[in-house]
Known about the structure:
Distance between the termini: 73 Å
CATH class of the largest domain: Mainly Beta
Strand content: 25-35%
CATH superfamily of the largest domain: Glucose Permease (Domain IIA)
Number of strands: 27
Bound molecules: zinc ion
Helix content: 10-25%
Largest sheet: 8 strands, antiparallel
Amino acid sequence: MARGRWGIAIRLILALTLLRIQPAFAQEPVRYTVQPGDTLTRIAARFGTTVGAIVEANRLVNPNLIYVGQVLLIPVSTPSPPFSGRVHTVQPGETLYRIALRYGTTVEQLMALNGLRNPGQIFVGQLLRIPEETPGTPSAWPVPFRDIRIGLTPVVQGRVFSVQVQLSQPAALEAHFLGLIFPLAPAPEGGEGLVAVPAMQAPGVYSLGVIARTPDGQTVQVGLPVQVVAGPYGRESIRLPPDRRRLLDPKLLRAEREKVLAACAPFEPERRWQGPFRYPVAQPEVTSEFGTRRSYNGGPHSSYHEGLDLRGSAGTPVYAPADGRVALAEALVVRGNAVILHHGWGVCSGYWHLQAVAVQEGQTVKAGDLLGYVGNTGLSTGAHLHWEIRVRGIPVDPRQWVEGSLP
Ligand SMILES: [Zn+2]
């Protein structure tokens, strides 16, 4: 009898314990991407949770080892703690993204703070909580840095990410990543620019250096760990007819590559494009994706496709996808009749295998202007347009440029 009562009591305590634990996970945890300057303490404070809860939810071994781009599950408890921050009333035509931009926060933070599961679920008149301003986080950065933000995350092989820097005094800015230098264009009270990740770069955590050079000759550098994740790239094998194999002469390949890189090299701080790029043909149909690992005539998959191949019969018009300046317009051996455009911010785009070229070097073009016509010149196995985009000479996936707004 006594044992039976004890049994019931123990079961009751267990049941109560489970009840106490469960509400913490009653709401699905929020996914948050770690930003430069974040610490677990700061993230916990922002979401009204504790460091311990985040450590547990993510099974972190060392809470001091988090890195930019890392995705953390944030357990959000219901009911939420009392809210003392700002409130925004959603207006017609507003998206969560626009609201986030307006208040200098992110869609993820707004979703977490308001318990939203889907960024499209807001409605006119809805009251949204806006996070407290984090005034420059003065202790996190050395002078002259006030804030550094990484955008276009997650950071993916063969894609670009953006770096936005706020400064407390004027300085020239540069980002260093994987041994390459990406100058940042001046912006009000800071600078911004794009950093390219090579398509064959192994996934992992790499250091992004941001360097400020002040007019009095001081150089200040900060390092941020950034996680690179794998891109969705496939493999293909290509057979070239014997009369075209001679074009694979390494010396010739190298010389032509250097010519293309030299045409892409100059950095112009003025950004010529606005919004997403257009496809350079009227009816885009991708026949070979960017980043596809390639083997020629049975060799290893040691190279990759540096652009996007678009279907097009010979003579199909090719248009500028964005405003730019013609940096190269000539016949090349491998790339055939070629055009390279400069768009500013170290961004250039290339159009290969053209039947004919309709622009001249040095000419300025607007988005939609005629550049030439689809053809089968150079190292090509049939009429098509090879279109590529490079940032500081690194080929990046054009899909990122047509599908979203950069930066
Ligand atoms: Zn191609």
